[in-house]
Amino acid sequence: MAKTYAALLRGINVSGHRKVPMPELRSVLEGLGHRNVRTYLQSGNAVFTTDSPAGEDGLTTQVEDAIEHRFGFRVDCLVRDGDYLAAVADACPFPAADLEGKQLHAFYFSGPADPERFAAIDQQAHHPQAFALGDRVLYLYVPEGLGRSTLADAVNRPSVVKGLVVTARNWNTVVKLVEMTREE
Q1: How far is CA 146 from CA 92, 103, 143, 156, in A?
Q2: Helix, strand or coil for residue 110?
Q3: Which secondary-structure segment (H or E) carries 22?
Q4: 79-102: pLDDT as tens digits
Q5: Residue 77 has pLDDT above 90, yes or no
Q6: CA distance 78 to 108
Q7: Nearest residue to 174 (alpha-carbon basis) of 108, 114, 76, 75
Q8: pLDDT at position 181, please?
Q9: 3 state DSSP class of 15
Q10: How much of the chain is in helix, strand and coil states, percent to nearest 5?
Q11: What is the percent of the chain with per-residue pLDDT over 90, rounded to a whole number?
């Protein structure tokens, strides 16, 4: 049975480094046999439909391997199905509809967002910035935007996220990817 997924690539096309042009990314995904491939922005968001039984982890490995083969460098990637993306958006504990996209972010994780990892972070020290954990996601509210956030640095510190692939998207992108995975 066909299912629609989003591939979230981490750390590409930043300051001219690790270039992965979106037309070539679409070609890579089509080469894996995926259909209805679309990309969003230049920051590594691709949506595709597949009959593959590989599931999220298997598709993640396929995409990472194919990108490495095509471009000569490995890119961390998370593949998530449309139902998961919609559930993340629906479960947001912050008033997303009342915020600008730059004020709210989803940090997607390759594994569980174990509260123990984040227990030492004093959210009050970063107020009014705040975060909340969900299913393999951290919701980050940053009223002044991500670039000015001290809390973003704290939750993404290597000692906190060790062993996880983490990639963040602003709320506008979160919503757009939900819409794109609903289209057929």
Answers
A1: 17, 7, 8, 12
A2: coil
A3: helix 22-31
A4: 999 999 999 999 999 999 999 999
A5: yes
A6: 8
A7: 108
A8: 96
A9: coil
A10: 40, 25, 35
A11: 88
Strands (E), 51-184: 77-81, 104-109, 130-134, 137-141, 166-170
What span, in angstroms and rounded, lies between the C-alpha atoms of 108 and 85? 10
CB 115 within 8 A of CB 179: no
At residue 148, the pLDDT reads 87
- Indicate the angle between helix axes 171-182 and 82-90, nearest 10 degrees: 140
pLDDT band at 1 (very low <50, low <70, confident <90, very high): confident
Say which residues have a Cβ less than 8 Å from residue 40's Cβ, sequence separation at least 6: 46, 47, 173, 176, 177, 180
How far apart (Å, rounded) are the C-alpha atoms in residues 115 and 5?
A: 27
3-state SS class at 16: coil
For residue 183, pLDDT beyond 90? no
Give yes or no for a contact between 129 and 151, defined as CB atoms under 8 angstroms apart. yes
Q: Which residues contact residue 141 at a Cβ distance below 8 angstroms, ignoring those fewer than 6 apart?
A: 94, 99, 103, 104, 128, 129, 130, 131
Give me 45's structure tokens. 């968001």
Strands 104-109 and 166-170: antiparallel
